[in-house]
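RECORD TYPE: inverse folding
INPUT: structure tokens
STRUCTURE:
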């Protein structure tokens, strides 16, 4: 985001100051004259003048004739033709939007700075290559070590260790409980140390445990390694989300997060081929194939972690180092573009230093933010209908007659479908500016497939059963949409830090629920389990619709109050309010 096409240059308007724009923008109405509260993040105008440390802060602007629609630039026309509240177009409020003095990019902050759209596009492409691409590589490493147990199962790991399906369920539950409990503490450590320091430490630590899984001998050692692996991996995902938010605007985040989770499924696809090779080492030095798998893939993750220690910069203005080059990756002008475009998009990103810890008081305030609770509830149940079949995919394929190597190759088609759907639905959500209603597609997709699996007799052709399973595993995954909207609706860095962790904790609890639905006494068709999953599909549709209604209602009430205020009353509110983040009267929730 920067300045629009045309001969004139205008200072780009902060998203929370915009009231109307062209269609599909997440911040403004379009030609159809959407209501000001339609899927809007901010009308965020200003914060308490005496408490800069509690608010975020880009500048106001004198002209609002230009706005950005996603990645294209649209000329809006003269300022007096744009539907907007005069308060948001009034100059002289710059002091309300300044970042805190300790903000790491303060030396590049300039409310009068101007740049061309093409300059910004070049900067974003550079960020994509330097930052987003490597974040995806690190996520590849995470998924490799936490997901390779699926390939190990196809090599008779349970039989070798004398474990049952229920033991596997308990092990996965232990893993996810450990992962869940470590999420928030790990995120708080990351906020204190910086993700660029903490993430590599995590990676090297869990890679050691991942390799040690090659030496487990039974139930106790299996449970122990699952516990340690979950505890060391916990927090990694919200840490990456917070780290990416330093670099990208709110409208750019969903697409980058979709690629983030594409790398997860790319791991599942590539690990199937890796497993096809490594599992053939069974018997080499008297070691089982699944042991080679754990050991060698753990070593690979450790190498990625060591490299990440030297590679990751702490922020957009801190890329210079002996490893990355004395001059860093960006010019001074590019750094100014990065800092100012992010702050003008979301003022909350300037309210803390990226190494500033969350205090206990801040933590409690974030935990008590009831406006975020519907998102946590969605994380708790949204993916239950698809998780059991995904977790049991290799066991299901073995049970219907496919051998070890065919099973690992047959995992690839549903994962490819999953990737396509992830990218498409994430893109569409921003394109049509709709999130919660669109997110019901995953439930509507899964419902008839689960009915089909229930109706399918035991003697049904293996190919038909595989088709239903593959379609269920390749469902429309809307996780990137929900993670992005959690970040957008947080309103402050501290809330974003905590909310990202809490949401992901709920997702891990979702996995715990899902991992205990298919039981030994329900094999091989899992009829009872699939009926439970159908119930979750219905419940989730109602929950998505209810969450949409919740945020729309709040936005409408705030809009009515805001419009009922006189200009002077709005000025007084902006100058004196003690409301913070998403509690402010001029904050609008995305939905």
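DESIGNED SEQUENCE:
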């Amino acid at each position: 985001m920067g300045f629009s096409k045309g001969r004139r240059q205008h200072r780009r308007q902060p998203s929370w100051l915009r009231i109307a724009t062209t269609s599909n923008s997440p911040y403004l109405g379009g030609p159809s004259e959407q209501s000001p509260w339609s899927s809007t993040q901010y009308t965020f105008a200003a914060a308490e003048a005496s408490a800069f440390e509690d608010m975020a802060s880009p500048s106001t602007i004198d002209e609002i004739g230009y706005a950005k629609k996603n990645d294209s630039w649209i000329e809006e026309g003269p300022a007096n033709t744009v539907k907007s509240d005069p308060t948001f177009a009034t100059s002289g409020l710059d002091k309300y939007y300044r970042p805190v003095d300790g903000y790491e990019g303060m030396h590049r902050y300039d409310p009068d700075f101007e740049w061309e759209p093409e300059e910004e596009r070049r900067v974003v492409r550079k960020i994509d290559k330097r930052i987003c691409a490597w974040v995806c590589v690190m996520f590849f490493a995470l998924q490799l070590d936490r997901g390779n147990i699926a390939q190990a199962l196809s090599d008779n790991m349970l039989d070798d260790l004398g474990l049952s399906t229920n033991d596997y369920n308990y092990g996965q539950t232990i893993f996810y409980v450990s992962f869940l409990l470590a999420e928030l503490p790990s995120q708080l450590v990351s906020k204190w140390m910086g993700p660029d320091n903490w993430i590599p430490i995590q990676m090297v630590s869990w890679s050691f445990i991942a390799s040690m899984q090659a030496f487990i001998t039974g139930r106790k050692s299996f449970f122990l390694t699952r516990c340690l692996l979950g505890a060391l991996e916990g927090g990694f995902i919200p840490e990456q989300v917070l780290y990416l938010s330093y670099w990208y605007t709110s409208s750019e985040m969903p697409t980058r997060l979709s690629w983030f989770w594409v790398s997860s499924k790319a791991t599942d696809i590539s690990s199937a081929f890796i497993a096809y090779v490594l599992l053939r080492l069974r018997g080499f030095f008297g070691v089982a194939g699944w042991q080679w798998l754990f050991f060698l893939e753990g070593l690979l993750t450790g190498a990625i972690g060591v490299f990440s220690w030297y590679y990751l910069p702490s922020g957009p203005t801190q890329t210079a180092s002996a490893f990355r080059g004395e001059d860093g990756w960006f010019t001074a002008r590019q750094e100014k573009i990065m800092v100012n475009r992010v702050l003008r998009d979301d003022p909350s990103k300037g309210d803390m230093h990226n190494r500033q810890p969350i205090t206990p008081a801040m933590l409690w305030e974030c935990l008590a933010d009831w406006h975020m609770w519907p998102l946590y509830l969605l994380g708790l149940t949204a993916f239950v209908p698809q998780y059991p079949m995904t977790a049991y995919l290799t066991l299901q394929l073995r049970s219907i007659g496919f051998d070890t190597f065919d099973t690992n190759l047959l995992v690839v088609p549903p994962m490819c479908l999953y990737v396509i759907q992830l990218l498409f639905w994430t893109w569409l959500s921003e394109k049509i500016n709709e999130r919660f209603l669109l997110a019901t597609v995953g439930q509507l997709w899964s419902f008839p497939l689960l009915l089909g699996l229930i109706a399918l007799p035991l003697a049904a052709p293996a190919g038909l059963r595989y088709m239903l399973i593959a379609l269920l595993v390749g469902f429309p995954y809307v996780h990137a949409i929900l993670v992005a909207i959690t970040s957008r609706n947080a309103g402050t860095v501290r809330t974003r830090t905590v909310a990202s962790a809490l949401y992901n904790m709920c997702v891990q609890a979702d996995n715990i629920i899902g991992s205990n639905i298919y039981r030994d006494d329900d094999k091989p068709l899992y009829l009872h389990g699939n009926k439970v999953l159908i119930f979750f599909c219905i419940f989730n549709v109602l929950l998505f619709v209810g969450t949409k209604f919740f945020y729309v209602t709040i936005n409408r009430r705030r809009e009515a109050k805001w419009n009922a205020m006189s200009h002077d009353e709005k000025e007084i509110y902006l100058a004196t309010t003690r409301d913070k983040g998403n509690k402010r009267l001029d904050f609008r929730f995305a939905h």
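NOTES: DSSP finds 22 helices and two strands in the chain.
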